[in-house]
Amino acid sequence: MNSDLRFDNTEIAFSQKSSSELRKAYLMFKMMSNPRWVSFGSNLALFGLKARLPLIPQIIKSTVFRQFCGGVNRSDCSDLVSDLNQNGVKAILDYSVEGQESEEIDQLNERFNPVFDRKQGYITLSSRNFAVDKINQQELSRIEGKPETYIGKMEGNFKASQAPVDIHLHLKIGAQVMFVRNDTERRFVNGTIGKVVELEPERIKVEITTPDQRLKVIDVEKENWEIVKYKLNPFNEPEAEVIGNFTQFPLKLAWAITIHKSQGKTFDKVIIDMDKGAFAHGQTYVALSRCRT
User: Fold this and answer.
1) d(CA 148, CA 168)
2) Confidence (pTM)
3) d(CA 264, CA 241)
4) pLDDT at residue number 99
5) What secondary structure letter does DSSP report for 147?
6) Residue 31 pLDDT level (bands cut at 50, 70, 90)
7) Angle, vertex CA 37, rays to CA 58 and CA 47, nearest 5
8) Which sign, positive or negative, has the C-alpha torsion 231, 232, 234, 240?
9) Is the pLDDT of residue 160 over 60?
10) Is the pLDDT of residue 94 over 60?
11) What is the CA radius of gyration of the chain?
12) For residues 185 and 168, is the Cβ–Cβ distance under 8 A?
């Protein structure tokens, strides 16, 4: 990258934009900062798309799409990529693919296995919380013995709805779990799948498969999550104040998780359970793209 290039230098950042483009971008972002306009625009766009109004796709493409997307295909993006490259910015094109409905269904059906045998290490992605909870509880109940319960500790302004893991974490030896935090020692990352091999009051041992396919046992200790509030001190400098925290093991049962909570994670073995279908745009794509190819 060009050593003179600075992303906080608006003169450089806007050099490729005309005055007309900048005024249009300013107006759009100003409208997007108003919740009422966002709600009105979103509902209007959805209504227009469902009613197949011809102007709606054109309006979307000339405003939001043009601001955030390079184009609909590689040739559309070539001019923008060239401009970025001249300023020392390397571009990676991220594609979203659409196909004919029959084509998509045929490709998915080709991979359907009616006699699939779930084995250790597979994780089910479901669109609904109740389905995830049902699968996890069913799998946990199949393991003999009583579960050990680990109770998280909340302090200050930390609310139960903000907890990244269960406040009452029920585990058994042999349970499939997922780490929900990156390890500072890089032994695991957010999304690593493992199996519980030992349970102690203040420590849990989890066996994972390393990237080079070796089995490794991790000693897992409790982690602390903080809620931080920032304010200006008398010198007009930002200061951080911890107003709440939560302490618990960074683990959750992981025979199944919701598609929403799987975003940003990558898995080696995935089962996708759409049940009654997706209820949000792009949900099926998110689920399919979680699996490593």
Assistant:
1) 10
2) 0.59
3) 28
4) 47
5) P
6) confident
7) 50
8) positive
9) yes
10) no
11) 24
12) no
Q: What are phi and psi of 286, to 5 degrees?
A: -60, -45
Burial (0-12, 13-18, 19+ Cβ within 10 Å), 56: middle
SS3 89: coil
Between CA 226 and CA 270 the distance in angstroms is 31
Which residue in the block uniquely carries the two structure tokens 């600075």?
6
Tokens in use for 110? Answer: 């080709």
Alpha carbon 127 to its chain centroid, in Å, reads 14
Per residue in 170-202, pLDDT tens? 999 999 999 999 998 989 998 899 999 999 989
Calpha distance 260→265 (Å, rounded):
10
User: For the chain, where are the E strands, in sequence order?
Assistant: 123-126, 148-151, 153-156, 168-171, 176-179, 193-200, 203-209, 215-220, 223-232, 238-248, 251-253, 256-258, 270-273
Record the tokens describing residue 260, joined without a space: 């929403």
Q: For residues 178 and 257, is the Cβ–Cβ distance under 8 A?
A: yes
Is residue 242 scored above 80 in pLDDT? yes
Evaluate if residue 122 carries a pLDDT over 70.
yes
Q: Could you say which DSSP state residue 33 is in? A: T
| Tokens at 245, concatenated | 């925290």
Q: Residue 7 carries which side chain, given as an amino acid letter?
A: F
Please, what's the largest Cα pairwise distance for the chain?
70
